[in-house]
Here is the input.
Amino acid sequence: MTSTLITGANTGLGFETARQLIDAGHTVYVGSRDAGRGRQAAEQLGGRAVQLDVTDDASVRAAVKVIEADGGLDVLINNAGIAPEWTDDGVIGAADLTADLMQQTFETNVFGTVRVLHAFLPLLQRSAAPVVVNVSSGLASLSRLTTPDTSAYAYAGVAYPASKTAVNVITVQYAKAFPAIRINAVEPGFTKTDLNANAGAQTVEQGAEIIVRMAQVSPDGPTGGYFGNDRTFPW
Here is the structure.
């Protein structure tokens, strides 16, 4: 049975991705910063709870030990993410951007992704068909950010798009460094979740579709790519 870890899986896209992959036969570790919420979500889903704070080295190391003791890992889905630039008063744009906001965003979205990747690589390398899915965003596309009349071009924020563009670079470079692992970035679309105060245009079921699909990519499938639900996304 395929063993899968999803970070930030107690709510939103992570939770729905876990539900769909469990339905597909995966053993899913529901990674959650809050251990209690993680246990509750895992019980509801029929998954396995693992406490995992992507910003904390000790937490990540402990999660590796738990999953290693259970037999290993085949699929890693880096889903945990934050968007502190999205406030009740609107998006914090370039004029009001601070280094602290940038650092806070990168700590989870970028450094957290690298921290988890680095820690779990030894387990993934023991798998017969290892897969990594990095949850990115359409706002990470520099092509779209610089093309007038696109939704990305109209977006004023800096920290969140920059963090997800960095995730795309991480995806490409890790894919080149580890050709035996299928490593891809995905754009789930503007989905109704707590991250955006449920302002998204689609359901979590729709948003999770591309994550679930790329989590099940075959050993001869694509790697180092950037995919949306219905197309390959431009960098």
